[in-house]
């Protein structure tokens, strides 16, 4: 993973030293359930997740530049191709942020950096992003980043007692991205 830098953030690979920081926000019930996973019960669970991030190599740790503290994550995941865009190279972006840092624009800043890297350096054709119907904060991030609404699907959240939710899916093509700025 290439380290990405913004005005206030460093987006970099996860390390085992980040377990405490992950647990600090992943234990909060406002975080995981909005993204499809349960709050972490203990640090051991956070350690397993950090290990899975390291293995997958597609999730950035969001580090506050001048504090060296990890306050969230942004993933750029490979996905199975959605028919609408046929054979094009597609990815999905996902993110979470420590609630103490909500309302400061950090996620929008980080996602914009990932979009720039994905479109301009990796030459990805289409990036997807989605939010559950009740997740207004995530909806605003998606809109601020320029994604366009595509479709809604019903999802069963296996990690959250098979809760059923409506998931709104958005896409952004490289061409649309080029017209944004
Ligand atoms: C979704 C989530 C990441 C959004 O966090 P957020 O803090 O609202 O998003 P941003 O970091 O982009 O901050 C945007 C807010 O900061 C404000 N802001 C303050 N300073 C800013 C700055 N310098 N630049 C941009 N925005 C700024 C914006 O006006 C906006 O405020 P608003 O929400 O009142 O409109 C967060 O709520 C979260 O982690 N939720 C739980 C997990 C989750 O839902 N993940 C997504 C699953 S789809």
UniProtKB/TrEMBL annotation:
Residues 9-166 form the N-acetyltransferase domain. The keyword Calcium does not apply. Belongs to the acetyltransferase family. RimJ subfamily. One of its GO terms (molecular function) is acyltransferase activity, transferring groups other than amino-acyl groups. The keyword Transferase applies. InterPro entries: Acyl_CoA_acyltransferase, GNAT_dom, N-acetyltransferase. Keywords: Acyltransferase, Transferase. This is GNAT family N-acetyltransferase.
């Amino acid at each position: 993973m290439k380290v990405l830098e913004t005005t206030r953030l460093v987006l970099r690979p996860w390390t085992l030293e980040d377990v405490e920081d992950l647990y600090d926000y992943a234990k909060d019930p406002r975080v995981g359930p909005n993204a499809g996973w349960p709050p972490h019960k203990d640090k051991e669970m956070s350690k397993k997740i950090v290990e899975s991030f390291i293995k997958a190599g597609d999730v950035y740790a969001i580090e506050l530049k001048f504090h060296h503290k990890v306050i969230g994550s942004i993933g750029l995941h490979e996905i199975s191709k959605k028919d609408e865009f046929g054979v094009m190279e597609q990815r999905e972006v996902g993110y979470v942020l420590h609630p103490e840092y909500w309302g400061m624009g950090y996620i929008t800043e980080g996602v914009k950096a990932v979009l720039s890297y994905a479109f301009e350096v990796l030459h990805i054709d289409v990036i997807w992003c989605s939010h559950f119907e009740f997740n207004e904060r995530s909806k605003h991030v998606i809109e601020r980043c320029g994604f366009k609404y595509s479709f809604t699907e019903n999802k069963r959240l296996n990690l959250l007692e098979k809760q059923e939710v409506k998931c709104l899916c958005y896409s952004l093509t490289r061409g649309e991205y080029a017209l944004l700025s």
